[in-house]
Amino acid sequence: MSETESTNNNQNKIQLIYIFPNLFTAASIFVGVISVLASAKGDFDKAALYILLSLIFDGLDGRVARLTNTSSKFGAEFDSLADIVAFGVAPAMLFYYSIGIHYGKVGSLLTAMFVVFGAIRLARFNVMIGINEPSVFIGVPIPTAAVVLTMWILVHEKYVFFKDYNIAILVGIAMLALLMVSNFRYPSFKKINLRKPNFIKVLVYLVMVFSLVYIYPVESITIIVTAYLFYGVVRAIYNFTIAKYRKN
């Protein structure tokens, strides 16, 4: 093999490595679109499953890019576009076809509001990369909002008595949209201290959580993500109250 051929082969390998993490991003968009189609058909359980699958692909693309040292501006932009589809449009359509469609213009407004505010959240996140603390998110991340909404709808579909409380989901999706563009701080868990004492605690907590998820998957995940959602609200109210008290 000549030196030129060897160089070309190496260049092709490098190009393939750059494509690899973007395949996960493309997969996230793909299953997001499939989720929309499932929602339109009234198959809400499948639609929810596809959104959660998108979350897995979304988590893998960034990690693969970092592991292979192939992070790029194109990949970051592609990932944001994927998030709009998988975590903006897909859960919004799940809400609309399951609940929002029965509430006319209000349902349509809340559906659009979730997508638009999710896009604003992503745009703000992109321009503030490197400025914010890595240990916190400013506002609810759009994947988190998507999972919360998805789990609420799964619980709504699973338990008949929740059918009488559709208004709670309407208020909930409006709240999610506003929290995405809020200044409330949420832990990102990117800087978890895994030194030996903390590692054992984290391991015990994870075993307990996974045990609950195994027995009651829908209910336990819903409780966890909802608790995370309200954590930021309670924390903001607490900090505001403390600050006001100290001034007085």
Characterise this structure.
It is built from 8 helices and 2 strands. With 248 residues, the chain is mainly α. The longest helix has 38 residues, at 3-40. It is 79% helix and 2% strand.
Topology, please?
Elements: H1 3-40, H2 44-67, H3 73-98, H4 104-127, E1 136-138, H5 142-158, H6 166-180, E2 185-187, H7 196-215, H8 217-247
Antiparallel strand pairs: 1-2
Helix pairs in contact: 1-2, 1-3, 2-3, 2-5, 3-4, 3-5, 4-6, 5-6, 5-8, 7-8
List keywords for this structure.
Four Helix Bundle (Hemerythrin (Met), subunit A), 79% helix, single chain, 248 residues, mainly alpha
Quick overview of this protein structure:
The chain is mainly alpha-helical. 79% of the residues lie in helices and 2% in strands. The protein is built from 8 helices and 2 strands; from the N terminus they run H-H-H-H-E-H-H-E-H-H.
Mean pLDDT over all positions? 84
* Major sheet strand order: 1-2
Order of helices and strands: HHHHEHHEHH
CATH architecture: Up-down Bundle
Distance between the termini: 80 Å
Which word captures the global form? globular
Task: State the share of residues found in helices, binned by percent.
Answer: over 70%
Counted by DSSP, the helix tally is 8
What's the CATH superfamily, by name? CDP-alcohol phosphotransferase transmembrane (TM) domain
CATH class: Mainly Alpha
Strand-residue proportion: under 5%
The gyration radius over C-alpha positions equals 21 Å
What does the largest sheet look like? 2 strands, antiparallel
Counting structural domains, the number is: 1
- β-strand number: 2
Determine the CATH topology.
Four Helix Bundle (Hemerythrin (Met), subunit A)
List low-confidence stretches: 5-14
Structural class: mainly alpha
